[in-house]
Amino acid sequence: MKRKCLLTIILLSLVSCGLSSKNKNSETSLLNIETNLLNTLDDNQKQALITFKDLLQDKKHLSILEKQQKSILEDLKANQKNYNLQDKLKKTLNSEYDKNQLNKLFDELGNIKTKQFLQQLHIILQSIKDGKPTNFASSNFNNLNQTLEQKKEQALKYIKDELYTDYYLYINGIQDANYFFERIMSLLES
To answer: Which residues form the signal peptide (predicted)?
Structure first.
């Protein structure tokens, strides 16, 4: 009896060590993704990455995420579609920044798409900062009473809100990495 108990304890310890080792390997793999990516980025892309990471930790955009969550849920309910997704949307979405989740996104996108995303993000942020008139041609900026600085702030807020919302919809399994990429690239190129 003692021998069986001892054997059971040893087996449980081995299984526990194996699971712990697997988690460490997964974390190491995700950290390697970030290291490898950083080694291939130019200075502009690195700056865009820093801006993106800072944005993901900024809770100012949480209310926009909550509105988007409610809107998607209402649309799904109205069309009686995707009940599994409805269940996810009924719960509070995770909006805590996790470096591993960001690395997982970059892993799913691959280096080429990640670099395209960061390059385009840098370009749009720089053009907003420079106040290029083409960025303010849409009907959202036709308020003649707005100064250039106000238009720049409005454009920057819009971009940040959309990035924040789409990223957290991705990490909560509401949309996949490719949808995130396509939607954000479309937004950044407009």
So the answer is: 1-21
Which residue in 101, 93, 95, 135 sits closest to 30, CA to CA? 101
CA proximity to 119, closest of 46, 39, 38, 35: 46
| Phi-psi domain of 110 (left: phi exceeds 0; alpha: psi -120 through 50; beta: other) | left
CA nearest 113: which of 35, 40, 26? 40
Q: Where are the domains of the chain?
A: 1-40, 41-189
CB atoms within 10 A of CB 131: 13
User: How many CA atoms within 13 Å lie on the side-chain side of 167?
Assistant: 27
Place of tokens 């526990």: 16
Question: What string of pLDDT tens digits covers the 190 residues of the chain?
Answer: 556 555 555 555 555 555 444 455 555 665 677 778 888 899 999 999 999 999 999 999 999 999 999 999 999 999 888 888 889 999 999 999 999 999 999 999 999 999 999 999 999 999 999 887 555 555 455 666 788 888 889 999 999 999 999 999 999 999 999 999 999 999 998 7
Rounded CA-CA distance 140/142 in Å is 6
Please compute Rg for the chain using Cα positions: 22
